[in-house]
């Protein structure tokens, strides 16, 4: 599970703390200087007050002391003591003996004792001699009471603290505003760096007003432009070289080599049983058409036929088309058999016959289609031969038409005969009602085979006591619009499995294109992931590259939600959907699984080796892991391992098992 990263302090926080502490220090120092200054002033005032009082009292007492009137002297001293604010007033005779003493306790109302202890005002003593002419009659000592000074200082302190708090708050807000404004360009540059990390090179940082940050923004924008250009050029180069190797230059379809390689991988794969139909399409007398109408018109005819064929197969996920040679085309329809294949051939023949350029030939015996179907693996030459025999039968019949190759064993699977469509429908309904689906798990190993990255989840259903692989029942589920229901069942069961185990195992589950195209399924899926966050973090959801053509908006939504909900996303059948690889820039996917047609016999194909090496280079630059699918022989593994593959799966590395232990 992912560990929570420690939170680092930001530059804004550092600047705010530094400037805040600096401002606070200045205010505190200023505060203490003000208190010290006020204390010194108060002490001077106390001393001056005491000395003035002593001098004045000495003059007043001189007449009564001369007359030895001690009572009048006491009355004068009492009058001054009662109407002033003194700590003590003392009259000494000429011998230094205290004759009159008035003393007030050190009691201060409204001032905390700790404040009095900390400030500790020292009230100076004022002294004056009592004279009669040149004769000394005695002396007086006066000390002002510091209580009033303490009260004034305490009130001043409270006012200072209020102003200190207000100034500090205003200063902090101003500093925050100023620092935020100054650092805003840095935030935008940071966002640009994050966008580059996420393969988005379109973000541009605005130009700051400060010279230094402006230079950084210019450098970042320039770097982003260069990276985006390099990435686009890299993608264009790979697609161009791939097109040169595997595509027909006139129609843009795959060529014969690419088609046969992919079909061979489908038919001979040990991963699953091949189910589907092969159509061979031939326009007769094409050489004569070129002579009569010119080569350019002939090319236009081929392009028109190619566009019509592509449009016809577009709704069928995983279908692929090629121009074999001249006016010959081939189509493989995965999961399409029986009456569905018949319907496809009939409709395609009707559409091609209606093309304006075909009608120019003024013949109704030039367009023919041969169809062969299979429910199990078979050698490529045998499958092509069956479709070719069906094509020859259609041509022998004369007019534009199609024929299907049929034998008693054409639709036999090991141990059972083909079931009729209504039987399959009931089987699938019962399976959904009883939730009777089981899993096998195939390990996906790391590039050095030291660890298992995750387990590929392979669905099985039980029919008459036998387990039927997904390749056999999924086409029927698609036919009866049950794929979303089966995907719901699989997701629910794998969530339960992940939660019950509670360990570090990770599981990869395939979601069909039809489910992604169902808005209700996508809503349900995202809610389910939100409800089970722990399970979501152990799951990888795999979607076919064809999803980018048939359900691109839903796929983008699922990928975007993965960062917050915790699951990861993998693109399956990478490289065969004729989709520009530019989507790797803006989709934050985690894995791409290279289609097994590129892995089959890769030791003999320099083109496929170059393709895989280029994909690795691009993917690693986007922080995407590349996994090779269908590694079934040692020679294939020996060829891909040195390329730096991130992971691989196939019968050579590990067969599907009932348990992950």
Automatic annotation (TrEMBL):
GO biological process entries: signal transduction
The GGDEF domain, residue ranges: 274-407
Domain of life from the UniProt record: Bacteria
Gene3D superfamilies, per database record: 3.30.110.200, 3.30.70.270, 6.10.340.10, EAL domain (3.20.20.450), LapD/MoxY periplasmic domain (6.20.270.20)
Pfam families, A to Z: EAL, GGDEF, HAMP, LapD_MoxY_N
Segments crossing the lipid bilayer: 14-33, 161-184
EAL domain mapped to chain residues: 421-661
Protein name: EAL domain-containing protein
